[in-house]
Here is the input.
Amino acid sequence: MLIEMRNIRKVYEQGDSTCEALAGIDLKISQGESVAIMGPSGSGKSTLLNIMGCIDRATEGEYYFDGKEVNDYSDGERAKLRNEYLGFVLQDFALIERYTVKENVILPLKYSKKIKKEAREARIDEVLKLVGIEEKKEQSVLKLSGGQRQRVAIARALVNEAEVLLCDEPTGALDKATGREIVNVFEELNKKGKTIVIVTHDPDVAAECDRVIKIVDGRVE
Ligand SMILES: Nc1ncnc2c1ncn2[C@@H]1O[C@H](COP(=O)(O)OP(=O)(O)OP(=O)(O)O)[C@@H](O)[C@H]1O
Ligand SMILES: [Mg+2]
Here is the structure.
């Protein structure tokens, strides 16, 4: 099993108030699956994705990634796992606007030894081609459309040969047709063996995934 969570709880503390965002999540995701995570606003989807992506830690429970309990990892070990195995795709793309496409995509390579320096240029060309945006390589991202920006973000997520893409409402800022194109990109990547987890409010996006996990009030329904 690639991802396994057992009784994951997340409690946010703010001053003297607390919020239980996740109330005991159990789930499994296999290598190569595409999974949609759906549920009402505030149900804990982003919290769950952040814990899955080792951006945040669970308050309680067990999280096994590739058989290893990563809740117990040090911050450094978690950063390495994030950089080498996980790619993130967010609703607002999270690109650096004053950089070119290439400068954005190269960023994760600077923090990893996974791709050797002399192989970087070829790797960038490869991922840009994979997402269909190779002709924009030297352009500033400021001049790109929303769909093109999301392609850049997916290329950046993939450049370190991530096994898993974790996507939080990746089509949320796109019109229907452009969102469809981005879903097609995910489908192609999934066919090539990538594991894809997509938080989405859009039933059409979810319908393209192998499986839907529904979250309500911090629990799997
Ligand atoms: N950093 C935080 N500090 C305190 N509470 C938080 C924090 N992040 C999220 N929460 C709370 O945790 C609960 C779950 O939030 P989360 O963002 O995971 O929901 P969501 O399902 O992603 O919602 P949406 O569909 O609107 O994005 C909410 O009640 C939210 O207010
Ligand atoms: Mg959210």
